[in-house]
Amino acid sequence: MATITDQEITIIQPDDWHLHLRDNDMLAETVPATARCFSRAIVMPNLVPPVTNAALALEYQERIEKAIPAGSNFSPLMTLYLTNDTTEEDIKAAKAAGVLASKLYPAGATTNSASGVSSLTAMYPVFQAMSDHGMLLLIHGEVTENHVDIFDREKEFIEQHLKGIVENFPKLKVVLEHITTKDAAEFVSAASANVAATITPQHLLLNRNDLLVGGIKPHNYCLPVLKRNIHQQALRETVATGSNKFFLGTDSAPHEQSKKENACGCAGCYSAWSAIELYAQVFDELDALDKFEGFASLHGADFYGVPRNTNTITLRRESWDIPQAIDLPNGNPIVPFFAGQTLSWKLQD
Predict the structure, then answer these.
(1) Whole-angstrom distance, CA of residue 166 vs CA of residue 5
(2) Catalytic residues
(3) pLDDT above 90 covers what percent of the chain?
(4) H/E element holding 138?
(5) Cβ atoms < 10 Å from Cβ of 87
């Protein structure tokens, strides 16, 4: 049970239910950044090449585990990257190997999604296998047709695809990842207990004005893209309810500064080094700190069917500035989300 005072918050150690760690040298930065406060994390499989089977998932898990700091209790939770070549046997083998979930990227929807799914109905036998074997389906919920406005792509995905998936596979547990709209919040709230959603810090803290007004802010660029203020407010109101259908998923996604600040900047916000503090600031602003532990530490574990953590973390009301940049192991800088801004809560060692 959380302990909340005006100066301190102590909650059960949280988990990150949507995370990009990348690979190889990048792991020396991203894994410690996540392990500083999170006990577990659902690791996205959109590497190049993607993690499409059990063997690749286990190899990736081993590389991640080598980067975990000594004394940390952090554990990566692996996922499979769905393609139109994924088979029912792939699902069965992955589940037997300990893979908890598979990720659906519509082809071309975001970074490293070119190998994603181009025909959703063709995936129905795979979805049935996932339902039969108790594997969760994690969805990047956007259509990719060029004629659909980028600000409407999540809403259109719900109408065109998600409703059908949920209706046809009522026993399949589905997570609509990084929701950005009032439409998504309302759909998940009204759906069965087998449908949930993750929400990122950027979509709670920002709207599209923060991306576009006064010049393009490349480090606020993510996919799904930031939406209107009315959608940001809807997400904030949703987490303030304390509904167990919504939980923490940072979608922390690192890119070198040079790859964000160019003519075709990469999508993704690197929030790992300040994620729990950013969320705490949101719940504090909403006068909903009593709902913070559920969102950060309980709802995700319960939905995934894994034990709740037993350790705790403490945040103290203390002003501190997020660094302007962080040097990666290769010497190149990365600009973290909210770089240079002051937060009012700080994780204690």
Answers:
(1) 41
(2) 251
(3) 93
(4) strand 136-139
(5) 12
